[in-house]
Request: fold
Amino acid sequence: MKKLILFVVAALALFLSVEASAKKSKEEKENENVIEVTMRDGSVEKGRVTTYWTYPMKKGYSRTFKIKTDDGRDIKFDVTDIDSLYFPLRTEEQFRTYRPMLVPRPKIGNKSNVEEWICAVGKRSEHAQLYFPSIWVNYQATPTQSRNDLFTLPSIKFDCDSIAYPFYYYHNGNFNISVIKHWLNKSNPELYDHLNDYFKKNKKAKKEIGDRPEIMLEVYEEYLRTKSEQ
Reply:
């Protein structure tokens, strides 16, 4: 009987622990949706995201989202309306700040096409900033199974430029600076040559950049130092 009682107590404790963990996870998930939207006119709306810009819809992808404000209003925003987004309750490991950013989206017949997307703000160096738009990628997860998942698209915006250039495509070729080459071919071919030469010589950096996108910031700052010494 004593063993049975101990077993029941242990089982109950485990059940309550699991319940508490599930409840905590739900609370954490809700906290991730708490948002402050700063408009381009300076006004601010606070609430919770109900539909994210990454929802795979035909129109509005990476451009529109919806929130329910703290006072109960339902608002739909377009990328052209906002200055920035801030998620105050997210952890340090999560993206907290997002901004509208021009991102190259080459099309057939128009390799220079760009779109304004909502992008997560990453690390910066003295003269450049990392941005992370999100894209859906279909890839072969196993020899017999394909998947469609959401991944970030590490991109760099040079302070002297207005465009965030993608340089790493998870499960879709990985490191690739062909977009940078296209855009800088006329304006700054020396920068592309520096980036290309660096990653040809530094295989380790090329392999690690998917986990440490800030390597691109370091390489760009190295390029600027090289230029200033000439």
Observations:
- The radius of gyration is 22 Å.
